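User: Quick sanity check before I run a bigger batch. Here is a single chain. Can you write out its predicted 3D structure?
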Amino acid sequence: MTEGTSSYRSILKATSLFGGVQVFNIIIAIIKSKFVAVLIGPTGMGIYGLLTSTTQIISNFTNFGLQTSAVRSVSKSFEMNDSRHISLTICVLKRLVWLTGALGLIITLLLSPVLSFVCFKNHEYSLSFACLSITLLISQLSIGQNVILQGTRKWKLLAKSNLFGSFFGLLFSLPLYYFFRLDGIVPAVILASFFTLIFSWIYSKNIPYAKIQLRVKDIFTNGKEMLLLGLALSSSGIITLIGSYITRIFIARLGSIADVGLYTAGFAIINTYVGMVLTAMSTDYFPRLAGISSDNTQCKLLINKQSQIILLLITPLLIAFFIFSDFALTLLYSEKFLPVSGMVKWAAFGMFFRAISWCLSFLFPAKGKSKIFFVNELICNIYYLSFSLIGYYYKGLNGLGYAFAATYIIYTIQCFFVSKNKYEFNYINKFIKQAIIQFIFLALCFSLCFLDSKYKYLQIFCEIIILISSSIYSLLKLKYLVASKK
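Assistant: Done. Predicted structure follows.
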């Protein structure tokens, strides 16, 4: 088997495994979203969005980006095939997640009255934030266990951990929404996080390692590389979440809490259902890219291959999203959420460019270039926030969709030039031709979404033809890439 064939096959193998998990998670999300939307409505979704986004911001302040930086450290230790080094890395990671998780818990607990006032202009939700503080510790411990599975390439165990955690989280949290409605939001979030921790622990305990006694000084000495890269990653995540948080507050003040709920629900669809391909691929992609990060030529080849596969998988999905998004909004939530339809379509269009930039953006943390990564993400978040605020002010919810699409078109160009100048990156002709063809399919279907309603049946017919054509092209191309000996 050639190296090229092996690479394409390994990408598809990992994607199919975690894609299956993502499909299951999507089914879980569909059931949860439908029940929650009906039981607590747009206002409840708005409250849920403000509570969870606020705690997520604090988590990003305190978790030091270990979810990504530690994968790089564990993966490199694993490739060294040195059992002591692997044990040391795992022991350091386990201590760090306890320290960072406890820090998040304490800060959230102490600031709960302030957070309630900032979000809701009263102290009514102080207890809610205080109770949710435990989720920061639970989530960080779960991350530590899953990082060990990911870094040591235990894909099946990681998949099982994610699958069972999601299933039992849903099974035991839905009754809380049913019986307690708005009052069930906080207990449901806490319970779901507990099940994630339980199953991550069950499967990660199968990873053999020697327990090493460490002093506090040893933890920070050996974890320095993780923490420095993680600090840049978490800082970027903080900026992203702050931008999203400011957007939600701006929407709540200029519009309503219901609009916040619509915004939250709309982007949840995009990130959950369309973003499943990115999520599935990232589990395998980042450790492999980190492993070859010192070789620019190998990085270029892997990024191009990953980009080819991702566009072949995601373009038909985006086209299907244009066609069925209104039906999906009604099915997954209710007819009350149809006002967000235009925003969702524009965001789906932007996801094409997000997929391309996503492959490139992993290069910087894979190489450990924390400063380049941070500055690159900071610039992106500045214009994304600016576009979002301006877009909502002038065009309402649709303006938020325009902002998303414009941001990722610019961000893709930005990532390309940074990668080209710093690491001699370039796209190969094979990828460029494929991207142009898929973009034509995408742009044609997107333009049809805005035809006058009197052409509805012609529009649907043309959209279906485009979807079938794009799907056939993707399937044939995937078959060729896997079978090719070049």
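The radius of gyration is 22 Å.

User: Great, the batch can go ahead then.
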